[in-house]
Design goal:
By secondary structure, this protein is mainly α. It has six helices and no strands. It holds the Pfam family OGG.
Length: about 130
C-alpha cells in the first residue's frame, strides 16, 4: 500500500468537513519530489487539486497510474523542472518529446501543472 501524503491526512477543512488542498500545499509537495513514490504522491495531489470539489474529471487521470514504471517516468519528467539551471522548455520536452517519460493520459494541459508546482513559482495567491 502506498504511503498517503501528509497533506491528505490532516489540514484545513471546508464547510462540509472535507480536507482542502491549496496551491501552497502543492508547492510544498513539489519541493519534496525526489523519489518515484514522491512523484506519484505529487501527481495524485495535483490531480486532486485540479479536480476541485466535484471530481468530475478524475477518471481521466487514473489510467496514467496504471502505466508501467509510472513513478520513474513521472520522476524523470519532473526533475528537469526542479533544476533552476535549465530552461523551462527542457522540462516541457521531458514529457512531450522524450518517449522514456511519456505517459498515457498525461498531455501538456496537465503535465504543465506538475511542472509549474514543482518548479516553485509561488507567485499567486489561493
Amino acid at each position: 500500500m502506498p504511503v498517503i501524503p501528509s497533506v491528505f491526512q490532516s489540514g484545513e477543512k471546508d464547510s462540509k468537513g472535507r480536507l482542502t488542498l491549496s496551491r501552497g500545499d502543492l508547492f510544498t509537495l513539489g519541493t519534496m519530489v525526489e523519489t518515484a513514490q514522491n512523484a506519484v504522491n505529487f501527481y495524485v495531489a495535483v490531480c486532486s487539486w485540479d479536480a476541485g470539489a466535484k471530481a468530475r474529471d478524475i477518471y481521466r487521470r487514473i489510467p496514467t497510474l496504471s502505466e508501467t514504471d509510472v513513478g520513474e517516468k513521472l520522476l524523470g519528467g519532473i526533475m528537469p523542472a526542479k533544476d533552476s539551471n535549465l530552461e523551462s522548455e527542457v522540462a516541457y520536452r521531458s514529457f512531450w518529446r522524450r518517449e522514456q517519460y511519456r505517459l498515457k493520459g498525461l498531455g501538456p494541459a496537465f503535465f504543465t501543472k506538475l511542472l509549474y508546482f514543482v518548479a516553485g513559482f509561488d507567485t499567486l495567491s489561493d
